Amino acid sequence: MAEFRVRVSTGEAFGAGTWDKVSVSIVGTRGESPPLPLDNLGKEFTAGAEEDFQVTLPEDVGRVLLLRVHKAPPVLPLLGPLAPDAWFCRWFQLTPPRGGHLLFPCYQWLEGAGTLVLQEGTAKVSWADHHPVLQQQRQEELQARQEMYQWKACNPGWPHCLDEKTVEDLELNIKYSTAKNANFYLQAGSAFAEMKIKGLLDRKGLWRSLNEMKRIFNFQRTPGAEHAFEHWQEDAFFASQFLNGLNPVLIRRCHYLPKNFPVTDAMVASVLGPGTSLQAELEKGSLFLVDHGILSGIQTNVINGKPQFSAAPMTLLYQSPGCGPLLPLAIQLSQTPGPNSPIFLPTDDKWDWLLAKTWVRNAEFSFHEALTHLLHSHLLPEVFTLATLRQLPHCHPLFKLLIPHTRYTLHINTLARELLIVPGQVVDRSTGIGIEGFSELIQRNMKQLNYSLLCLPEDIRTRGVEDIPGYYYRDDGMQIWGAVERFVSEIIGIYYPSDESVQDDRELQAWVREIFSKGFLNQESSGIPSSLETREALVQYVTMVIFTCSAKHAAVSAGQFDSCAWMPNLPPSMQLPPPTSKGLATCEGFIATLPPVNATCDIILALWLLSKEPGDRRPLGTYPDEHFTEEAPRRSIATFQSRLAQISRGIQERNRGLVLPYTYLDPPLIENSVSI
């Protein structure tokens, strides 16, 4: 007989405690104990409790390998068993008669009656678990999770996604917490009620004037939205949004003018000034291009029975000497030059030039929402999340490293498939290109997607924007990428002693292979690896995953409301076709081109919700669920947190000197995962 002390920690969240009965079986090298009840006088397993139990094993089971946790509803005399409930267990600590404590991290909900198997907390790659019982447990755990979390092809040419229809179908471990869910619907309900009371959501006609739009602008105010309202017509602000707005990923250095964008020296002389030319500025590297060519010929939507329109503009920008502002030089609203596709210039009539810039902003909306936000920052993180759950067991160091960066991603994406990107919902009823246009854009972009675009340092180099001043997305993003990369490198160094150890980890290779096949649809041209051969390649890949799920999403999501609250700065649809000549634009025609009242309000409501985390936050580097139990990874986590704090102090110091602070990549404001 052997006496063990068992310490159990229950989570603090609402509903984390249980009335069910819990017992444990201890599995060792010599056998397995029968279920041992964890039962003291009074109520056990209340939320936030840490409790001690003494259990006696009838026989010695040898060195402890696993802990089986059994949960079942209590049986009442005459009434029989009660309905089972859910329990959130943080961890078990087992103290054998001889030897130190054994910690078994859990951090899972146990729903209903059933059994959960836990392995001692030391992280191990597949080749490091030598005992047959442990190897078998890894396989059984993955088989169970692969049955629970299955793939489906949501739309042709899209990354695959979780095979669940509604958030009600999700199991508790991937659902919003009760508090987060309640906050989300309270926010949505209050915002919807305000719009309804103002009578704006049901009004299908045009805005009467720009002044009338201020009614909705007063809905919710932020410093970013206020700045956009005050400066939206200014060329410098228009250009700055390509650097630090909601879509800071398209601008690239222009080394030669595209043949289908025939800008001449005479057109831009007033902005460039005397003594220079387009060719001279191209050679200096002071010209930049934003090309929305992927929108060419895209399907458009019908809103309130009226066909909508889209454009595929090209915008040429000029970086003023010294630290002067970035300025627009020329805009062409199609990919085909000619008499019906004039090149608009800052010297044109006020309304001609403003209308051209507004068409570019509409293209930014479509590109950002379909590609930068939905595809790159939601659908791909869902692929990373599903592959992690299906291919890496809890004891794997990469599972422990990555699981905080998958929190709530499956919930918010399932909710999006219910409420945003389905017929009759927001994208369908209120955006200029609608669901069909979104789908076509994603299909096109999936064929162009490449690995370098997902790795920020390579993306910055490829676009040639290493030295453009005032590019805070780049500056802050590169600091965070570097901090994540150093953290990942330390963790990889602990568990992978050589390149061969990476190659020999079959679970890691299965994870990478599944991401390649289900996320990138086996497209070798993408450069996305289907296997990893070196520690260096593994570090880059895992850094890319964490950065995409945290900082990248924050950079392109948190500013959505700031950009769209004053709708003319980011119109979701355009009701008249792009102009084919100059000199005809008027204030009345400008307003008639903008989206109708109900579509405007619909989008602003949606983007306000998607810009606002509904509580229960975990900022980047915050890991309250302590999956790692060894000292080495814990030290690396502490160092990572210190680096992020240092980055934050630098960002806040810089922001004190800016008219419009760039806050989207301040680490305390970045969520660990895609959760909204």
UniProtKB/TrEMBL annotation:
The record marks 109 as: Essential for stabilizing binding to COTL1. Residues 124-676 form the Lipoxygenase domain. InterPro entries: LipOase, LipOase_C, LipOase_C_sf, LipOase_CS, LipOase_Fe_BS, LipOase_mml, PLAT/LH2_dom, PLAT/LH2_dom_sf. Pathway: Lipid metabolism; hydroperoxy eicosatetraenoic acid biosynthesis. One of its GO terms (biological process) is arachidonate metabolic process. Keywords: Calcium, Cytoplasm, Dioxygenase, Iron, Lipid metabolism, Metal-binding, Oxidoreductase. GO terms for molecular function: iron ion binding; oxidoreductase activity, acting on single donors with incorporation of molecular oxygen, incorporation of two atoms of oxygen. It is found in: Cytoplasm. It comes from the Eukaryota. It holds the Pfam family Lipoxygenase. Fe cation binds at residues 373, 378, 553, 676. Gene3D superfamilies: 3.10.450.60, Lipoxygenase-1, Domain 5, PLAT/LH2 domain. Ca(2+) 2 binds at residues 39-40. Residues 2-124 form the PLAT domain. Its cofactor is Fe cation. Binds 1 Fe cation per subunit. Ca(2+) 1 binds at residues 15, 17, 85-86. Belongs to the lipoxygenase family. This is ALOX15B isoform 1. It comes from Pan troglodytes.
